[in-house]
Design a protein that fits this description.
The complex is a heterodimer. In chain A, 74% of the residues lie in helices and 0% in strands. Chain A is mainly α. Chain A starts with a helix and ends with a helix. The longest helix of chain B has 18 residues. Classes of the chains: A mainly alpha, B alpha+beta. Chain B: GO terms for molecular function: ATP binding.
């Protein structure tokens, strides 16, 4: 309570009581009603049984670990390889998409921050932003059209004689990876741009003057400065990719399920909110754990990311 | 001709229609401490980038050790550049910074560390190798930047206003230090500065630049005492510029008719003037003496507008017939009673006054 008061009082002194109250209430509503309460109710759901309506609140309505147990061992006590496999596959795919985004966005951010000027820079920024005016579903279907059996890429490839049978990009998940990579480019470019922009150009020239090759300049001078930005962008892209639903639904191959689709099925098709909640909590915890582990490995602190 | 000599052979650098450096032509001897002195935007940094290889001259040639440097990149030249803001790498330790040029050349980790420690000893900062750059003071960073530049044993060190970020005391201390390091390692130093104090105290020779043109090259004393252009006279050190027209020249002595009456000075470089030529008479504030005797030649009667106390000296701002001048006097303790409006008479020795053709003044 004293910590809150010490936050509130200087703000009231600087911006007036009204503004301070508004910020205080807005933050409270945001945190409690939009973040804490829904998550707690999901958590609560995840520990309950999927009971018929009359039994709710009755003697059968007890807390249980059943829903979590199901994820690990299914109904038959055997290891639930199917669901665990889908989770692992989702994480691997999300890592893959994140890596592609880093590879694509690092040069873009660097050029945007240090080489592009005036019109070129503005065009680059517009080029990055405009695609996001198109809504998610439309964008996903556009990629389906692009990569479909009779799509643009197959017609071009076959027209140019590169291959003579339509390649099934959908089944190979090429369309899905491309769609997800494309969807989150902006979230990767801007944090890296922010970090790299702070780099003093003289440091690059100094390194060059000392004979450093371009890759060493990047490896030793630019990358260390970009690291917190990369970490911040990678966290966002990874979390959003692992939690994406529309793109896997539309672009995913028929034999491939994303973990979010599994959650969706529990909620909607099986009408089992309790198990769906447990699966959602599992996804959240695994993602957070995975990100924290990587941050440890790459020696990045939360504070650095927040900058 | 040694490997440390630099020749700028009629070098001009243009950006579009803008001429940043106009026909610079000079030779810098090996082992010399050579300064380019000029106001910001005079082209001195552009010229330095041209020597370091970050840009190429539009016309003319840069020769280092007798070899034409055309097409030779910055990393292939025997030069090392120290940037204005030092450009130390903030995320590397001090030792890693100093050894970076060695790392680039594939020197082993152990050897790098040994060399970094040697260089730290040389700049009198032993034992700071494992610190981060931000843990050092301004002056220490300065010295680390020098050590990093010296790590690859260049023939020529290029310094782009490296002292400008330091506070006054440290700046003065670093002048002595830089000069001492230069004499110890025996390299050619090319020093860029807009601070005439730095140029005068450290340099063997100075090139004074204005608007892309080198106006004068010479040792500190000749640049200060015998300026060749109005710009040099007014830029290097404090001076009083009094406008006038030539009425008489006998030998070196020129008499000008000025708003303050006839004044005499020496014609710089034995120049001949015609009567009626528009000229400036330059006289240093420290050459002006307060005189009670109003009959001596070169006497000016003026009134005090204000006085500035600088500790070791007092600067008296005086005005006479619309001409503002300053007189520097050594502070001998006690008040001198110079209040605003006080009438004073002062005189100067014509041998210490310089007459130069009318031209652009610094800061004008």
């Amino acid at each position: 309570m004293t910590a809150l008061r010490s936050l509130f009082q200087p703000m009231a002194a600087r911006h007036g009581l009204g503004a301070a109250c508004f910020i205080g209430i807005a933050v409270f509503v945001w945190v409690v009603f939009l973040i804490v309460l829904p998550q707690i109710s999901m958590l609560d759901y995840s520990f309950r049984l999927n009971l018929p309506k009359p039994d709710i609140g009755g003697p059968l309505d007890v807390y249980t670990l059943d829903n979590y147990a199901y994820f690990f061992s299914g109904n038959d006590g055997q290891l639930n390889t199917l669901d665990i496999g889908i989770l692992v596959k989702t994480l691997v795919a999300a890592v893959f998409v994140t890596l592609i985004d880093i590879v694509i966005c690092y040069p873009i951010a660097y050029i945007l921050a240090h080489s592009a000027t005036g019109v070129a820079a503005r065009l680059m920024v517009i080029g990055l932003i405009v695609p996001f005016w198109v809504n998610e579903i439309l964008r996903a279907f556009a990629f389906r059209v692009l990569f479909g059996a009779t799509g643009l890429i197959n017609s071009l490839g076959m027209g140019a004689g590169l291959w003579d049978q339509p390649v099934d990009f959908i089944r190979a998940d090429v369309a899905l990876y491309s769609g997800l990579t494309y969807a989150y480019i902006l979230l990767m470019v801007f944090p890296i741009f922010n970090a790299v922009e702070a780099l003093d150009r003289n440091q690059i020239e100094a390194a060059r003057d000392m004979g450093a090759s371009w890759w060493r300049v990047h490896w030793r001078v630019v990358l260390p400065i970009a690291k917190p930005g990369i970490a911040s962008g990678a966290t966002m892209v990874f979390m959003l990719t692992a939690g994406a639903l529309a793109a896997p639904q539309i672009l995913g191959g028929p034999s491939n399920l994303w973990f979010t689709q599994l959650i969706y099925q529990w909620f909607n098709e099986s009408a089992n909110w309790q198990r769906g909640s447990a699966y959602a909590v599992i996804l959240l915890l695994v993602c957070i754990g995975f990100v924290m582990m990587l941050m440890r490995v790459f020696k990045v602190s939360i504070g650095e990311i927040g900058r | 001709m040694t490997t440390k000599d630099i020749v700028l052979d009629h070098v001009s650098i243009r950006f579009g229609s803008y001429t940043a450096v106009d026909n610079a032509h000079l030779t810098i001897q090996g082992g010399e401490f050579f300064s380019f002195l000029g106001p910001s935007g005079c082209g001195k940094t552009t010229l330095l980038r041209c020597v370091s290889g970050f840009s190429e001259p539009t016309e003319g040639r840069v020769l280092i050790g007798g070899k034409d440097m055309k097409g030779v990149g910055p990393n292939k030249r025997p030069t090392a550049l120290i940037f204005q803001n030092l450009a130390l790498f903030p995320l590397m330790s001090v030792a890693e910074n100093i050894a970076f040029p060695l790392e680039v050349r594939g020197v082993s980790r152990k050897e790098r560390r040994k060399r970094a420690d040697e260089l730290l000893d040389m700049i009198a900062l032993p034992g700071v190798g494992d610190k981060k750059v931000h843990e050092l003071s301004g002056g220490q960073r300065q010295r680390v930047a020098i050590a990093r530049a010296l790590a690859v044993e260049p023939d020529i060190l290029l310094l782009d206003e490296p002292l400008s970020a330091l506070d006054l005391k440290l700046r003065h201390h670093m002048r002595t230090e830089l000069r001492a390091i230069q004499q110890r390692v025996g390299l050619t130093f090319i020093y860029i500065t807009h601070d005439q104090g730095e140029a005068l105290t450290m340099s063997d020779r100075i090139a004074v630049m204005n608007a892309g043109v080198i106006e004068q090259i010479g040792d500190p004393e000749s640049v200060y005492n015998r300026p060749k252009t109005s710009f040099v006279a007014s830029f290097v050190g404090e001076t009083n510029a009094i406008e006038g027209k030539v009425v008489l020249q006998s030998g070196e002595m020129v008499t000008l008719e000025t708003p303050l009456g006839p004044l005499q000075g020496k014609a710089a470089g034995g120049r001949r003037y015609k009567n009626g030529d528009s000229c400036y008479l330059f006289i240093r504030p420290e050459q002006m003496e307060l005189k009670a005797d109003a009959e001596a030649p070169n006497t000016i009667a003026a009134s005090v507008t204000k006085e500035e106390f600088e500790g070791n000296s007092r600067i008296l701002f005086v005005s006479a017939n619309g001409v503002d001048m300053r007189v520097t006097r050594v502070n001998r303790g006690g008040s001198d009673g110079m209040v605003t409006g006080h009438a004073v008479t002062f005189a100067f020795d014509p041998a210490h006054a310089t007459v130069l053709p009318h031209g652009q003044l610094a800061g004008a």
